[in-house]
Amino acid sequence: AEKDLVFVGFLVLQCPLKRHSIETIRHLTTSTHKAVMITGDHTLTACHVAHQLGITTKKYPSKSFVLSLVDDPGSKELCEWVGVDRKETHKFRLEEIETFKEKYDLCLSGGAMDKIHKNMGLSSIERLIPLIAVFARTSPSQKELVLTTLKKLGYTTLMCGDGTNDVGALKQAHVGVALISREGPDVPIKKVNVLESKAASSVASRARMRVPSSSSSLPRSRRRGGGRPSLKQV
């Protein structure tokens, strides 16, 4: 075990929001789109960032609750609602979830999602997921479950992700947007002339599709150009 250590200090790490994140979320929510967060981060971190972004809108932290596993192993309850400020708890009752949602912003932990899915069935998950604003401590398969459930319930979904853990959910969404970080906020983005780009792509496509006249594996008529494929096939 470590001993004779000298305390030097604390190391504080901060990951600030991107410049346009808050404005983007505001545009989405004011244009009748619903924005939710699905992350593998800790529930408290996720709830705090969701509040900063405007994904959750009720009084923070007193009106934000996390559905978590019950700490008491002897309890008959599967999960319980715990306030972000740890000042208040509520029993989880699925039949009262819509009423509870009217009062509070809700976060669902991956552990609680798994517990409900195994013990109460998929129908309970399908009732719960549309009411959740923040999904935290979620695994890649749970991210996929959120997307497939929303699609099953008739939602049109768009998923943004920037990591390998998001690949499955990106594939399940109607629209998957993979985000790639640049090497700094001031790195210029090269502008591309769309018409020139399309023209170059077309020339390259024709070059790739052209069959060499010396190819002996094709019939004579095809070698003479009679069988040149159409550009519509690209």
Task: Characterise the protein shown here.
With 234 residues, the chain is an alpha/beta fold. It has helices spanning 21-29, 43-53, 97-103, 110-120, 122-128, 140-152, 167-172, 194-209, 220-223; strands at 37-38, 64-69, 79-83, 89-91, 105-109, 134-136, 158-161, 175-178. The strands form 2 sheets. A 6-stranded mixed beta sheet has the order 1-6-5-2-3-4, with helices on both faces. The protein has a two-stranded parallel sheet with strand order 7-8. α7 (167-172) links the parallel β7 (158-161) and β8. α4 (110-120) packs across α5. Residues 197-234 have low confidence and may be disordered.
Question: Order of strands side by side in the largest beta sheet?
Answer: 1-6-5-2-3-4
Largest sheet: 6 strands, mixed
Distance between the termini: 64 Å
Structural class: alpha/beta
> What is the N-to-C order of secondary-structure elements (H for helix, E for strand)?
HEHEEEHEHHEHEHEHH
* Overall 3D shape: globular
Q: Please give the radius of gyration in angstroms.
A: 26 Å
pLDDT under 50 segments (min length 5)? Answer: 197-234
Assembly state of the chains shown: single chain
Number of helical elements: 9
Determine the fraction of residues in helical runs and give it as a percent range: 25-40%
Tell me the number of strands: 8
The proportion of residues in beta strands is 5-15%
Mean pLDDT: 83
